[in-house]
Amino acid sequence: MTNSVPEFSAYTECFLITGSNTTEAHPLVASHVMEGLERGAKLIVVDPREVQIGRLAHLYLRPRPGTDVAWLNGLMNVIITEGLADEEFVANRTEGYEELKQVVLEYTPEQVEEITSIPADDLRKAARMYASHKPAAILYAMGITQHSTGTDNVKSCANLAMLTGNMGIPGGGVNPLRGQNNVQGACDLGGLPNVYPGYQKVTLPEMKEKFEKAWGVTGLSDKVGLQVTQMIHGACDGSVRALYVMAENPLVSDPDINHARHCLEQLDFLVVQDIFLSETARLADVVLPGTSYLEKEGTFTGTDRRIQRVRKVIEPVGDSRADWEIICQLGQRMGASGFDFASPKEVMEEIARLTPIYGGVSYERLEPENEGFLQWPVTAPDHPGTPFLHKGKFSRGRGKFHAIHFKEAAELPDEEYPFILTTGRLMFHFHTGTMTRRTEKLHQEVPEAYVEIHPADAARIGLDGQKRVRVSSRRGEIELAVRVTEYIKPGVVFIPFHFAEAAANALTHAALDPSSGIPEYKVCAVRVEPVSS
Fold first, then answer.
1. DSSP letters for 65-134
2. Per-residue pLDDT tens for 39-55?
3. How many CB atoms lie within 10 A of CB 219?
4. CATH number for the segment(s) 183-375
5. Which CATH number fits domain 419-530: 3.20.20.80, 2.60.40.1510, 2.40.40.20, 3.40.50.150?
6. 5-177 has which CATH code?
7. Which of 296, 361, 424, 507 has its CA at 20 to 30 Å from residue 45's CA atom?
8. Burial class for 216, CB neighbours closer than 10 Å (0-12, 13-18, 19+)
9. Looking at the chain, which residues constitute the CATH 3.40.50.740 domain(s)?
């Protein structure tokens, strides 16, 4: 996130929320949004499904899934043609504006309505509301990124924020809401195939030399590694022979999971490190029992770059061990140097030495009597941290506009598979349900998978009050309960992905964004048929 969550309640005058079921998936963030609304801020929600926070919106736009670049270009078209752009910000802090303008002027509200089904007048109202209430914050989640054009969607959000001067100010910015509690920290500290900790590129010779010297090794690769989705394909074609999976459950979370299972079964060796025997762990040759957050020390880095301590409440249960201990002991047994840490505090000390954006972080500063938390970049022991990014200038100098044309999703409905399937999360379950579906109270709230379908579509396929349907795609089929509701657009169905026994990802398409490698979970073609009781 370019900005901080508390800024939403204090400063933001307009929220544009898209691809985010904020109140259900990020309720603490949503509480700050609602405080902003109570203060008088405006809310625009853009989502094909009527998510809970949409009921609070001043404007609620329901596009056809997969058409985000088109409606974002449409907003910018209105802002430019009606003279609502921040011309001073554009002139002094950006580049590439003329190229952007040339493209977005093709996306008139009427043209966008044909592509997205958003009424042209509603698009104009949204553009005026966003541009005339400053600071304005864009909040998005995986409804924007999980597309074969996910990178284009994110760049378009950045275009919109820069066009209106909503970058580098409190309460504004472009704010992705992360899907898990420490996914930001994992990315920060090297959990990506193209960077060392702190987003230091593996392809740069000086970075290779820096980490070889620090770790006392030679021959570190300067090649970009495999993305997660590429690893699965590698298991199928033999280029990946072994896989070590930590706290992830790809046999529920990956697209086209029937294919994913086939690929994992081709491995010579599969290791899974987790706190429960997940669907993926049941396939493993070796399972290493990790610990929950209550059983270990460390830090989490939240969605707004906020670094906070995690403190052990109980000792590890049974033979389980903290993740850092397991990794260090494996490293030592494999003969590697540099794995002789005695505590997570020592790990953080190395992070601070080698990672400039964490350079001023220490356990002492994260104590409640001191700062209590820090937001990176925090570059020195006396640096206060950074509540919002890009004040005065961007890290690259000038912000770059990207002129982007709309492209359709990889798979669209046809006569055989006439519905668009989109997937998402629920308030009562988390990710693949490995933890929450073992919690009786949460299980009682939503005990089984279901599909949402619009009443007109239910009547058209002859549901006649039947409670179960078969949903099938070109990759698989599942049987599940059905909820007939106007919360979903006609022609679209929604399935939460938490339920292994009726896994939405048995249906989803494995088309990938060419830049990020993220799968297109949010759009694929399916057929829905009634099932007799």
1. TT-HHHHHHHHHHHHHHTT-S-HHHHHHHEE-HHHHHHHHTT--HHHHHHHH---HHHHHHHHHHHHHSS
2. 999 999 999 999 999 99
3. 7
4. 3.40.50.740
5. 2.40.40.20
6. 3.40.228.10
7. 507
8. exposed
9. 183-375
